[in-house]
Design a protein that fits this description.
The chain has about 250 residues and is of the alpha/beta class. It contains 6 helices and 8 strands; from the N terminus they run βββαβααβαββαβα. About 35% of the residues lie in helices and about 20% in strands. The relative contact order is 0.14.
Length: about 250
């Protein structure tokens, strides 16, 4: 039976060099519950990310959303105006892959420390910039199921500079699902094909979902690009992934 009552709280998790604020949602009860890390868009841990975290908790997952802009702007959250998009992008280019991985590992360690969280692998889901970070996080040993939504730049760059994130594909240890809108100008179809080819080359479980008519941000019902049909299907695929792998 799927839990419907949840408890939410602002908590702090330890990264390698700083404390990271995080939003946590837990199903009520003793568990044990599988754990999932939710990774923000460029807009911070805002209403949308809190909503996703709560939705996962209602499905029976211990979910946590770390503020991956902690070093750039503590407490940052924003909406979707052009001015807010510009600010979010400004913070994004100041991030580094090593620090982001440390922050995600800190969130993983926090979940693993909770008595009601099941031992074993964790899930990870990220959107927009968080979709890119989720692809990075899939290389962590604790992450066994990853849902990466429209992560721009996976095929062309990595946060802070260096070889593109896609070159780390061989380090992924679990199952990865990627979700892309075919009208997303920030992720051309050939980049999606390249990511899929790299996943296939390394031979571990994966699926790439392409949604015709869907644009960047299609999962977020607070954005003008929201696509209900694509979002509904993608959510069901995510629940299947986590149910089967966690």
């Amino acid at each position: 039976m799927t839990p419907t009552k949840i408890e939410t709280e602002q908590v702090w998790v330890r990264s390698e060099d700083i404390e990271i604020e995080a939003y946590r949602a837990l199903p009520q009860g003793d568990g044990p519950f599988p754990g999932v890390i939710v990774i923000q868009e460029i807009f911070g841990v805002n209403d949308h990310i809190r909503d996703v975290t709560q939705r996962l908790a209602r499905e029976g997952y211990a979910a946590i959303a770390p503020a991956i802009y902690q070093r750039q702007a503590s407490g940052f959250e924003a909406g979707y105006t052009p001015a807010e998009i510009a600010i979010g992008r400004e913070y994004k280019v100041q991030t580094k892959a090593s620090e982001l991985l440390s922050d995600i590992q800190g969130a993983a360690n926090h979940l693993k420390s909770l008595p009601q969280v099941r031992t074993g692998g964790l899930g990870c889901i990220g959107f927009c910039f968080g979709g890119h970070v989720a692809y990075l996080a899939a290389t962590l040993q604790d992450i066994q199921a990853t849902a990466s939504f429209y992560g721009a730049g996976i095929a062309t760059l990595t946060p802070g500079g260096g070889e593109p994130t896609v070159t780390r594909t061989g380090e992924i240890t679990g199952t990865l699902y990627g979700f892309f809108g075919m009208e997303d100008a920030s992720i051309p179809a050939e980049q999606v094909d390249y990511i899929e080819a790299e996943l296939h080359k390394h031979g571990f479980p994966h699926q790439i979902f392409r949604y015709a008519g869907a644009d960047h941000g299609f999962f977020c019902d607070r954005r003008g690009s929201y696509n209900a049909e694509a979002a509904t299907d993608a959510w069901q695929q995510v629940l299947t992934l986590f149910r089967d792998r966690l």
